[in-house]
Write a structure and sequence with these properties.
By secondary structure, the protein is α+β, with helices and mostly antiparallel strands. The protein folds into four domains: about 5-45; about 50-115, 2-Layer Sandwich (Trypsin Inhibitor V, Chain A); about 120-185, Trypsin Inhibitor V, Chain A; about 190-265, Trypsin Inhibitor V, Chain A, CATH 3.30.10. Helices cover about 25% and strands about 25% of the residues. It contains six helices and 16 strands. It has helices at about 10-15, 15-45, 60-70, 130-140, 205-210, 285-290; strands at about 50, 75-80, 90-95, 100, 105-115, 120, 145-150, 160-165, 165, 175, 180-185, 190-195, 215-220, 235-240, 245-250, 255-260. It is elongated and about 145 Å long. The termini are far apart.
């Protein structure tokens, strides 16, 4: 009985023409499939192709849409903020950054300037220094407007907050970016106080006295040779009550002149007299008196 093709031993099968034809066909078919898949993926992913992200900052949304469509790029508005320095709907930030290389169809995430300013609360800056007030206003998204100075001992202290000339309370909601006007103390009050007399006092005593009258120490003119300024003596002042300047505005300065305190000078050591001899201690009258001769003794 004859043996069928598939019943032959494998060694005999590999020697047949049918085996080699199939093997070669499978080899070329595999190469074709690999080439086809590679070309298909390359076409689908645009292998080796990239698009440079344009700079969209400052452009309005209408212009951005046209530009991205021409480059086959997409966009998403991820966030919005507000600044008065840019047009409404203008692009403030973008990701990826300008100049980045991306694939076709990539989404560009945008931060857009809002059409209307959001409302923010005016912080409580009354009785704060101008420096602290400026920090709080910037943190709230507000800006410092006009500064008006009025007589007050507290220099550069915020006394009032105004908006278009009208006093506003802390917590009032205003559009972000609004300019807030402040009223500040000029450091010199309009209340009159007596001028103290500090001549004859030490510098330390005079300073305490002047500050106690709600005045300030002005220029301090020192004489040469002062070793301890705190103990130096005041010998002149301007203004001076003795010269008719009896009252000045609160916060005004008093200029003083100081000299070395005499009490701090080292005491003079007395010079000891030069030693004298016994002969020098004899009065001149006795030196010139003739010496009496002794009588002869019998």
């Amino acid at each position: 009985m004859s043996t069928s093709f598939f019943q032959r031993p494998f060694g005999q099968y590999t020697k047949t023409r049918y085996f080699w034809v199939n093997l070669v066909s499978m080899f070329f078919l595999s190469l074709f499939l690999i080439w086809f898949v590679t070309m298909s993926l390359s076409a689908y992913t645009h292998h080796g192709e990239s698009i440079t992200v344009p700079d969209l900052r400052g452009l309005t949304m209408q212009n951005v849409e046209k530009l991205l469509n021409s480059k086959n790029l997409d966009y998403v508005v991820a966030d919005s903020s507000f600044t008065r320095d840019m047009l409404p709907d203008a692009i403030m930030e973008q990701f990826p950054k300008p100049g980045a290389k991306v694939k076709e169809g990539r989404r560009i995430y945008l931060t857009v300037n809002a059409r209307t300013a959001p409302l923010v609360a005016i912080p409580n800056i009354v009785y704060n220094s101008l420096e602290n007030a400026l920090i709080q206003l910037e943190s709230a998204g507000l800006i410092l407007g006009e500064k008006k100075y009025v007589p007050d001992p507290a220099k550069n202290a915020v006394l009032d907050v105004k908006l278009r000339g009208v006093t506003v309370e802390p917590g009032t909601k205003v559009p972000k970016g609004t300019a807030i006007d402040v009223v500040l103390g000029n450091g010199v009050g309009n209340t009159m106080v007596d001028v103290p007399t500090v001549i004859g006092l030490t510098y330390a005593q005079a300073r305490i006295t002047i500050l106690g009258y709600q005045l300030n120490v002005g220029a301090v003119i020192k004489d040469p040779g002062i070793t301890d300024a705190g103990s130096a003596i005041i010998y002149k002042q301007v203004p001076n009550p003795a010269e008719g300047d009896t009252q000045i505005s609160i916060g005004q300065p008093i200029d003083i002149w100081i000299k070395e305190n005499p009490a701090l000078k080292a005491p003079e050591v007395p010079v000891a007299p030069a030693p004298v001899s016994r002969e020098d201690s004899v009065p001149i009258e006795l030196k010139n008196k003739p010496v009496a001769k002794e009588a002869p003794v019998d």
